[in-house]
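Quick one: structure for this chain?
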Amino acid sequence: MVREQQVKSLRQRALEYLAKREYSYVELGQKLKAYAEETDDIPALLEDFKARGWLSDARFTEQIVHARKAKFGSAKVAYELREKGVADDLIAHAVETLKETELDNAREIWRKKFKASPQSRDEWAKQARFLQSRGFGFDIIKNVLNSKFEDDN
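Got it. Here's what it folds into:
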């Protein structure tokens, strides 16, 4: 009897996950698979949650964009959303939103990491690789670094 009280239903697990943070449809489905039994219907459960407004890929996308925009560029955020199973139209909208402030975000990230403008081509390349690893496109990188490089010369 004690054992049965400790076993959580799949629905209860899903609610506990969603109480902690937003999940994408695909991501929550993958987490629940580890606890599912043959009789459990995960897609039906997820569709029910979606219908009730408890599970939303749009809300998940907004949360990820808000949390990541201060540290990463649109390419890295888009990649993460794709990995979590978010639909392409939601990713496209998120990237469009990020692009509006991407240059300012890149400058701020660059300013936090590097106190001085690149003084040589090697430093320029190092700083460019850093920004690229954060998911910024080459046009943004050139804009950030060339303006700093030219200002100092």
